[in-house]
Amino acid sequence: MSGLIGKKIGMTSIFDENGKNIPCTVIEAGPCVVTQVRTAEVDGYKALQLGFDDKSDKNASLAAQGHFKKAGTSVKRKVVEFQGFEGEHKLGEHITVDLFKEGEFVDVAGTSKGKGFQGVVKRHGFAGSERTHGQQSMLRAPGSVGAASDPSRVFKGMRMAGQTGNSKVKVQNLRVLKVVPEKNLLVVKGCVPGHTNAYVTIEK
């Protein structure tokens, strides 16, 4: 899919032509530099490697510095490969937010906010136990997780308390509400995963 690397700026809302207030997310999308062109002859598959967001050479390895120098660009913080990219692109070429148009639909992937260790009510949406009949210690407990004598174990995949968030999430079919080329901004309807300034990938 053709796409770009971006950075989540934050959420806001805009009014459409009918006066309806629409929640939306502002993303700084690109400009991205083509840092490597994968070919079927050399690599066994076709892909375009894009780099985004400059960083200091001081903290980059010599191998990384050489890799980006070959593309004629500075060291990048974020590098992502896109397979099946539309059109022909050369090493060192800049791809901007003009790749997207208003009204089309995109998929946005990123890492969700980490919530730490959470119970079953927050993690899986359990209702909890009843609040009446004198019970007081099982309000948000998971309840039974399996039988005793048979099968004498807890099945894999049982929904229990544990680490929540901080995982890759893709939100599909978000409508592009506005493209601002002069500021490299993309405004999409709804929310996207991640905290403010988190890196995301936007795919057509």
Automatic annotation (TrEMBL):
Pfam families: Ribosomal_L3. InterPro entries: Ribosomal_uL3 (IPR000597), Ribosomal_uL3_bac/org-type (IPR019927), Ribosomal_uL3_CS (IPR019926), Transl_B-barrel_sf (IPR009000). Gene3D superfamilies: 3.30.160.810, Translation factors. GO terms for molecular function: rRNA binding; structural constituent of ribosome. GO terms for biological process: translation. Belongs to the universal ribosomal protein uL3 family. This is Large ribosomal subunit protein uL3. The gene is rplC.
